[in-house]
Amino acid sequence: MIRLPHSSAHPASSRNRNLALLVLLPALLAAILSYVALNHLLPSDQWWQSFRATDLTDPNQLIFRYSALPRLFIAPLVGAALGLTGTILQQVLRNPLAEPTTVGTNAGASLAIVIATLYAPWMLETGREWVALAGGTVTTAIVFMLAKGRSFSPVTMIIAGLIISLTCSSASSLLMALNREYSEELFIWQSGSLVQNGGDAIFKLLPWVVGGLLASFALLRPLLLLELDDESTQSLGSRPTLVRLSSMFIAVVLSTMVVASVGVISFIALAAPAVVRMCGARTLRQRLTWAPLAGASLLWLTDRLVQMAPFPSEVPTGTATALFGAPLLLLLLIKLRPAAITARPSHVSVRTVNTRLRLGMMLGLLILVLVVVFMFGRSAGGWYWLQPSDVSNLLDLRGPRTLTALGTGMMLALAGTLMQRMTGNAMAAPEVLGVSGGATVGVLAVMLLTSGVNRSLTFTAAAAGALATLFMLLFFGRQKRFSADRQLLAGVCIATISSSIAAVFIAGGDQRIDFLLAWMSGSTYHASPMDAVVAIITAVLLLAIIPLTARWLDILPLGGSSARALGVNLPLAHVILMLLAAIPAGIATLLIGPLSFVGLMAPHLARFLGFQRAIPQLFASAVIGGLILVSADWMGRTLIFPWQIPAGLLAAFAGGPYFMVLMLKDRR
């Protein structure tokens, strides 16, 4: 009996020690590195003098006072705000994966500021904070609306938030493409840069962080009661709806204030509560205490390491946190208990249609669009119809990019249809499940290891990356009992990792940056005659091979048990279908880039038009995919002539809202 208090206290003291080490070790390392860097910039005996002087002429003193020193304070302050925000969101939503980036708050705040900067700068006269708050509130409300039909399940909330983020990101990129004179500054800010020009951001953000801490501790008991069901909470005298709204308001305000001050800093709000929980912070009071401290030390150290990275230009801190945070999200996703909710194929009323007649009409429409796209254009003199005598002059310019767009659109549509039928997941597509992201990682690996652009090697790497990603997703899906929703979330994580690696590569100052930026946006700018030949031949070969798998594709959506009962060799079917989906997806990604939602939209449009059986749906999807990307390429070439908008960017901007409509239709 005497040892009982000691044995019960020992784990608590061990947890406190672990939490203290978690906070102090990164903070101590960041402090040492910061001291060394500041002392190198300006000897320590001159620090106080530069801070007190009213007339500074030494450039090093100016940089120390107005840039280096404010950055030293803004990093832990932002980290603390995000750590607190993540803790509140995870408690309110009962969701260990919730944070401002994954629930769409940051994306809305960022898009609102971009719109105000470009088209209503008068709204920023009193500061960015209120514009960011309005945008973040709207997108958070949309995420709640999308997830409401599934009882706010954790994975559904995250998927809705990430799709909102992708859509807002595409919209921001489109607006910046239309306003190129501001695009560089907005791009750096959106990536989450902690570069400072004075201490204004610190003094604006500090009161919000302190107020958020005080308000969250004032709501400690009501927040604890949210762990019970609403009926039990009400019986104890609490009002759960009011508590949720108040807590969400605190979280949205804090996250949007951070966006207004420094841009989007991803995943710190996810990482800080997660690591303190792993180190022993069991109670909400402990998490509210330790998560802001952990967030402050982690972001401080990350920002210090970013400044030390050997790149010609500095990698934005938000990009670095995304590179570290996306794998953490994958790890948490694997450890999260399986959810009862899974995605299901969308139900469209079956209509009897004459498939041959309708396919013939669609092919005729495709041919007509190809003629219009090639002949109708825009020049300095306005819109015009190409004269027959000028066709040969423009054939080398328009022919390769139009045929490349046609072939890649068909390949992505076919890959998306195969994946939806193979997984039984109505939201599966190469772009959403991370297959395109895996192909991107393969291409970036080749570019990091070589000095040129070897087409055959990059083709192989893209296909290998796409195939490896698809195998990994299906492997974890079987081993960890992933629902289809979780596979979607894992795919978005892979896409985040690939985009972060690309951002690091861009910061390296490689001479291929222009090519990479255009390619990442889904561009046909650099399409060559060989690209067009590869795209068309691959699409035709795929259309010729796929009919051999017709029986599998008609049976697999019924489920694994039914497929086995009907004699389908599931491992063999999955391997062959994965190859047929991953290889063209990798080739299409290499040709036009990873940014497109063609693989998601085309299968659903084909089903909506009445093509229910596998083979008719595949052929119809191919035609629709070609139409979408050819049209997007033409619009990107003509809308803001003489500048151009990447075709993939336009397709993604349309695909995000379409994905949301699918989620609304699939609500339970």
UniProtKB/TrEMBL annotation:
Membrane topology according to the record: Multi-pass membrane protein
Gene Ontology molecular function terms on file: transmembrane transporter activity
InterPro entries with a match to the protein in the record: ABC_BtuC-like, ABC_transptr_permease_BtuC
Keyword NAD attached: no
Organism: Phyllobacterium myrsinacearum
Pfam families linked: FecCD
Primary localization: membrane
Localization per Swiss-Prot or TrEMBL: Cell membrane
Membrane-spanning parts: 20-42, 72-93, 105-124, 131-149, 155-178, 205-225, 245-276, 318-336, 357-377, 402-420, 432-451, 457-476, 488-509, 529-550, 562-581, 587-606, 618-635, 641-664
CC per GO annotation: plasma membrane
Keywords for this protein: Cell membrane, Membrane, Transmembrane, Transmembrane helix, Transport
Sequence similarity: Belongs to the binding-protein-dependent transport system permease family. FecCD subfamily.
GO aspect biological process, one term: siderophore-iron import into cell
The protein's name: Iron complex transport system permease protein
NCBIfam families linked: PRK10577.1-2
